[in-house]
Amino acid sequence: MSKESRKFKVPDELANLYDFANSLDVRQFTHHGVRHEQGDELTVPRDLAAWMSQRGLLAEGVRITPAMLDTARQFRNHVRAYLACDPAERRKNKDVVRSLTNALQAFPLVVETRDDRGMTLGPARRDALAGLSAIAAELYNGSVKGTLDRLKTCAAEECRRVFFDRSKPATRRWCMSTLCGNRMKTRTYRERHRNSG
């Protein structure tokens, strides 16, 4: 679990998925006169190795190759595309579902028995990317428990950050109503008054 996922109170069972989706930062706004810098935490194999190590997802002594990095980044793109769909529409979007399903094939899961936790889903892969199967398991478990529907993408086009909707009715649209929500409401207000005047 990262500082970011703790700060925004993302449940542990979705923390790796949340962090993985947000390892690509496409935000492009100015806040208090400061332009937000976009970034990608996974630009070279070493970055992916460090990201996985920080979360206990990388076995000791294994090496991430450029091809593995490419597989991980493609997987992340499909995860982000799925989470960008409104939760009520996710399963209906055949293209997004098909793409995510194809990406998940690179991270097959097996049922494992563990003394301390009973049964759990584990990686079928045995290489350096085996740890990313945890993301696939979180997608599956979140879908079964219904918590995945609370993981959404901010509706603000200049943000598109993935957030966990903690509101009781699960109807939040923005990652932060004080920032993205206010920006969107202000823009809508200005456009309405510009068009009416």
Report what the structure shows.
- The chain has 197 residues and is of the alpha+beta class.
- It has one domain: Jann2411-like domain (Jann2411-like fold), CATH 1.10.3300.
- It is 45% helix and 13% strand.
- The chain contains seven helices and eight strands.
- The strands form four sheets. It has a two-stranded antiparallel ribbon. The protein has a two-stranded antiparallel sheet with strand order 2-3. The chain has a two-stranded antiparallel sheet with strand order 5-6.
- Helix 2 crosses helix 6 and helix 4 packs antiparallel against helix 5.
- It is globular.
- The chain starts with a helix and ends with a helix.
- The relative contact order is 0.14.
Secondary structure elements and their pairing?
Blueprint: H1 3-7, H2 12-21, E1 24-25, E2 30-31, E3 34-35, E4 39-40, H3 45-54, H4 66-84, H5 94-104, E5 109-114, E6 118-123, H6 133-145, E7 151-153, E8 162-164, H7 177-196
Antiparallel strand pairs: 1-4, 2-3, 5-6, 7-8
In N-to-C order, the SSE pattern is HHEEEEHHHEEHEEH
Number of helices: 7
Largest sheet: 2 strands, antiparallel
Number of domains: 1
Low-confidence stretches: none
Which bin fits the share of residues in helices? 40-55%
Query: What is the assigned CATH homologous superfamily?
Result: Jann2411-like domain
The structural class is alpha+beta
- What proportion strand? 5-15%
Q: Using DSSP, what is the number of strands?
A: 8
Strand order of the largest sheet: 1-4
**CATH fold assignment:** Jann2411-like fold
CATH architect. name: Orthogonal Bundle
So what's the overall shape?
Answer: globular
Separation, N- and C-terminal Cα atoms: 50 Å
Q: Overall pLDDT, averaged?
A: 90
Cα-based radius of gyration, to the nearest Å: 18 Å
CATH class: Mainly Alpha
